[in-house]
Specification:
This protein is an alpha+beta fold. Helix content is 31%, strand content 28%. Helix 3 links the parallel strand 5 and strand 6. It is globular. It starts with a helix and ends with a strand.
C-alpha cells in the first residue's frame, strides 16, 4: 500500500469501483505526462445522486455530491494509472452543478471535491478549477466533475 492509499484509509474513505462509461467515450486518457479524466457523476451507496440545486437539493447535498465525484475521480486515477503514487499534481477540476438561476454557490459546491483532493494528495492536490451552473446534467445527476492530472 502506497502513501496515498494509506492517507485514504486514514481519512476513513473507501474508493468506489471506477465507473464504466455511459456513452461512447473512455473514462481516462493518458497523454504527454497528463491524465485527462472524463466527467464523473456522484454515487452514494451505489445510487446516483440526482436533482437540481435550489429546487429539490440544497448546498450541503451538492457539496456531498461533489465529494462523491472527487472519490470517483480518484478511483479513475487508480484504474488508469495502476498506482496512485504516479499522481504528480491535480492540475484542474471542472465542476458542473445542476442548479436553478437563483443558486449562486457553485464555488462552495466545488469545495466538496477541491478539499478532498487536498486532504488526499496534500500540496499536490491544490489545483485550478472552474465551477459553473448548468440546467441539467446526464442522468439527472446533481454534479459532474472532470479533471486534468499531471502524472509521473
Amino acid at each position: 500500500m502506497n502513501d496515498i492509499e494509506k492517507r485514504i484509509n486514514e481519512l476513513g474513505l473507501i474508493l468506489p469501483e471506477a465507473a464504466a462509461p455511459v456513452a461512447s467515450y473512455v473514462p481516462a486518457v493518458e497523454a504527454g505526462g497528463m491524465l485527462f479524466i472524463s466527467g464523473q457523476l456522484p454515487f452514494s451507496d451505489g445510487a446516483l445522486i440526482t436533482g437540481i440545486c435550489g429546487v429539490d437539493r440544497d448546498l450541503s447535498d451538492a457539496e456531498a455530491a461533489a465529494k462523491a465525484c472527487g472519490l470517483m475521480l480518484v478511483a479513475q486515477m487508480k484504474a488508469a494509472l495502476g498506482d496512485l503514487s504516479r499522481v504528480n499534481k491535480i492540475v484542474k477540476l471542472g465542476v458542473f452543478v445542476a442548479s436553478n438561476s437563483d443558486f449562486t454557490d457553485q464555488p462552495k459546491v466545488a469545495n466538496g471535491a477541491s478539499n478532498l483532493m487536498v486532504d488526499i494528495f496534500g500540496d499536490a492536490g491544490k489545483h485550478a478549477r472552474s465551477a459553473v451552473s448548468v440546467p441539467v446534467l446526464p442522468l439527472n445527476a446533481l454534479v459532474e466533475i472532470d479533471a486534468i492530472i499531471s502524472v509521473k
